[in-house]
């Protein structure tokens, strides 16, 4: 399962945030992580992002190439510095911090 | 934000996890039940946690059940399968494979052993008989009312006709050997096949008699009605050239006969598409060889799923 969502970046986000989410098929935490991340992106990035969902059950070597150990695991690839959050992304503050977004600004 | 409560990590899994280089954050996420799987870099295996494994298994089971249910509903459109008792049909179900057929696809060649038996759902198959080792002409049509591959049931093996898709669509097929095995134990299937064989024999006789005695306009009207009944559509993708080939006449004869039917407002045609505009009129124009499919079969979608799609 590899899914890409690419949209043009509207103001005020001039930089596209590139994200890669590693999941394990349609396991509960993986589905939850997708739903939570989509909600955060819709609220705070407003389309100024590119998200790729990689299923490690189909392609474990791809996750290994990036040093991913557990799923769900969210990697922010751009803008640098690269960051990682693990778990079902229900801790919104931690996800925002990893994405470089401060809630009061967004 | 919501979170999913996963099951506790078992002692065995804890032991495995101890050997993996998980960081503090990852360990906390595992303990909080927020992790579905870990990757064991040593073996390049994915270790799925018990709660996630159960959920994946349940999801797969639900998807398989939905697929089976969908497969059960399709044969409602094939009268032979729909008429089978549920137990007999269920036994045949795992062997049935849904296929999409395109116009011109050859299902069986003359004289060649039959590999699959086909149950048309919304496609129409034309049976062509070879004469003088070259020329082929139509001696039968099969739609959702029947099946293609009767010689398998009669233990003849090789096909005496060439079966070609006339109108594309969906069909269910089963391997010839498997079908022959099912037939030995399926009493109702045997009865269905006897009826089908008799119907095909009568149809072939009627077509042969029709060719010898009726005007071509009548034959053409009859043929179009027969295809339309089986395709359940008044619009047919058929060229004059194709009709000339299967009805064993010159192309000019098809053009002339179609012109007469069009002039009477019975059909319309353009660019390989023939539309039946006045069905009653076309039936009146056709010879008596045209036998409409019984209402029970023509309304298969409404009448038949009762016994099968449960």
Q: Output the CATH homologous superfamily of the largest domain in chain B.
A: Jelly Rolls
**What is the count of helical runs of chain B?**
15
Strand order of the largest sheet of chain B: 4-8-6-7
Total beta strands of chain B: 12
Terminal Cα separation of chain A, in Å?
Answer: 31 Å
Write the layout of secondary structure elements.
The complex is a heterodimer of chains A (106) and B (310).
Chain A: E1 2-6, E2 17-23, H1 28-45, E3 49-55, H2 60-65, E4 70-71, E5 73-78, E6 83-86, H3 92-99
Parallel strand pairs in A: 2-3
Antiparallel strand pairs in A: 1-3, 2-5, 5-6
Chain B: H1 11-19, H2 24-31, E1 37-40, E2 45-48, H3 50-73, H4 79-82, H5 86-92, E3 97-101, E4 106-108, E5 116-120, E6 124-131, E7 135-142, H6 150-153, E8 162-167, E9 169-175, H7 176-185, H8 187-213, H9 216-231, E10 235-237, H10 240-246, H11 251-263, E11 267-270, E12 273-276, H12 279-285, H13 295-298, H14 300-303, H15 305-308
Antiparallel strand pairs in B: 1-2, 3-9, 4-8, 5-9, 6-7, 6-8, 10-12, 11-12
Helix pairs in contact in B: 9-11, 9-12, 10-11
Give keywords.
heterodimer; A: about 110 residues; alpha+beta; Glutaredoxin; 3 helices; 6 strands; about 30% helix; globular; B: about 300 residues; Jelly Rolls; Arc Repressor Mutant, subunit A; 3 domains; four-stranded antiparallel beta sheet; three-stranded antiparallel beta sheet
């Amino acid at each position: 399962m590899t899914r890409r969502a690419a949209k043009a970046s509207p103001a005020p986000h001039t930089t596209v945030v590139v994200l890669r989410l590693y999941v394990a098929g349609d396991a509960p935490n993986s589905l939850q992580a997708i739903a939570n991340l989509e909600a955060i992106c819709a609220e705070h990035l407003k389309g100024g992002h590119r998200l790729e969902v990689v299923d490690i059950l189909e392609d474990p070597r791809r996750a290994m190439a990036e040093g991913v150990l557990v799923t769900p695991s969210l990697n922010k690839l751009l803008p640098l510095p690269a960051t990682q959050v693990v778990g079902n992304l229900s801790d919104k503050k931690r996800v925002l911090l990893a994405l470089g977004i401060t809630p009061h600004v967004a | 934000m919501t979170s999913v409560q996963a099951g506790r990590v078992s002692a065995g899994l804890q032991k495995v996890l101890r050997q993996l280089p998980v960081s503090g954050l990852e360990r906390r996420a595992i303990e909080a039940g927020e992790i579905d799987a870990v990757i064991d870099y040593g073996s390049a295996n994915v270790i799925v946690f018990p709660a996630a494994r159960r959920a994946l298994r349940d999801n797969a089971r639900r998807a398989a059940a939905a697929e089976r249910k969908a497969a059960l509903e399709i044969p409602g459109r094939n009268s032979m399968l729909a008429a089978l008792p549920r137990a007999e049909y269920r036994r045949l179900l795992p062997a049935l494979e849904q296929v999409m057929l395109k116009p011109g696809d050859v299902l069986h060649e003359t004289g060649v052993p039959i590999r699959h038996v086909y149950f048309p759902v919304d496609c129409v198959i034309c049976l062509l008989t070879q004469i003088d080792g070259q020329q082929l002409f139509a001696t039968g049509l099969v739609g959702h009312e029947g099946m293609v591959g009767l010689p398998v049931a009669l233990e003849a093996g090789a096909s005496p006709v060439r079966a070609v898709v006339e109108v594309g669509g969906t069909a269910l097929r089963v391997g010839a050997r498997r079908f022959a095995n099912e037939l030995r134990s399926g009493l109702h299937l045997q009865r269905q096949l006897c009826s089908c064989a008799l119907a095909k024999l009568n149809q072939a006789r009627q077509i042969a008699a029709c060719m010898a005695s009726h005007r071509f306009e009548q034959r053409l009207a009859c043929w179009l009605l027969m295809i339309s009944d089986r395709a359940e559509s008044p619009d047919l993708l058929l060229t004059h050239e194709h009709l000339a080939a299967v009805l064993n006449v010159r192309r000019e004869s098809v053009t002339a006969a179609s012109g007469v039917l069009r002039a009477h407002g019975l059909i319309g045609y353009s660019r390989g598409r023939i539309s039946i505009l006045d069905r009653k009129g076309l039936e009146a124009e056709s010879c008596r060889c045209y036998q409409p499919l019984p209402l029970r079969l023509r309304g298969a979608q409404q009448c038949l799923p009762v016994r099968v799609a449960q």
